[in-house]
Amino acid sequence: MRRTTFAFVVLALLELGTPRMAAADITGFLGFSPTPTSRGLRGVGFGVNFIVVGFELEYAYTSEDRLQGAPSLRTGMINGLAQTPTTKAQFYVTAGGGFFRETLVDDSHTSFGTNIGGGMKLGLVGPLRLRLDYRVFSLRGSSLYKNPQRFYAGANFSF
What we know:
single chain, mainly beta, Porin, 8 strands, 10% helix, 64% strand
């Protein structure tokens, strides 16, 4: 029993200690923003990851709801990530910044914004993973809603 336990511990340490080469991934996602009312969103992200740290470029579009006075929101962000060095379920935190454009009817504002959030990438089959993500934005300038939130689920393909 001791040999089996020892062998298992050694193999687990070797797996965690083995350096991985840099990997890239692309995510297509759908979700919703509950700020100020629930509206759909869609987007795409491209990332490069090095064992524990990485970065991503991301574009997302949240639809407008004129009846509720909820503006559309387009974001283009560059984010840094810190993530667990696991392969099956990878948890991460992220923060970054970029530009946004908020539009309601004919009124629009373009400025700089930041975001912070986190989530997980869950391995499904081969390089295909399910990505779940939550973000809170801080929008500068004269935006109608300074801190919109976003939840999404996406298909993540690692290569």
